[in-house]
Design goal:
Helix content: 55-70%
Oligomer: single chain
Order of helices and strands: HEEH
Number of domains: 2
Number of strands: 2
Length: about 80
């Protein structure tokens, strides 16, 4: 299907607006992530602290966030 130039520019504009909104939402979430209780301190998160070494891997938090985002995108794609 061949699209006219004006319509293509409109689609690019809409895509840029959506990306901008997504960036704003991600920015807000990153600045407020410390206020969400227990994220980063769940029982499955790996935290090792030695004398001169600290290792932290939020495994359970990553899985939880992945499940929530997967559900959101699954619900959104069904619209």
């Amino acid at each position: 299907m061949h699209l006219r130039r004006g319509r293509t520019v409109q689609e690019i504009g809409k895509t840029l607006i959506i990306f901008g909104i997504v960036l704003i939402v991600v920015g807000v979430l990153l600045t407020s992530v410390n206020k969400i209780p227990y994220i980063g301190r769940l029982p499955g998160d790996i935290y090792v602290e030695k004398k001169n070494f600290t290792f932290y891997f939020p495994l359970a938090s990553s899985i939880l966030i992945s499940i929530v985002l997967s559900l959101i995108f699954w619900i959104w794609s069904r619209r």
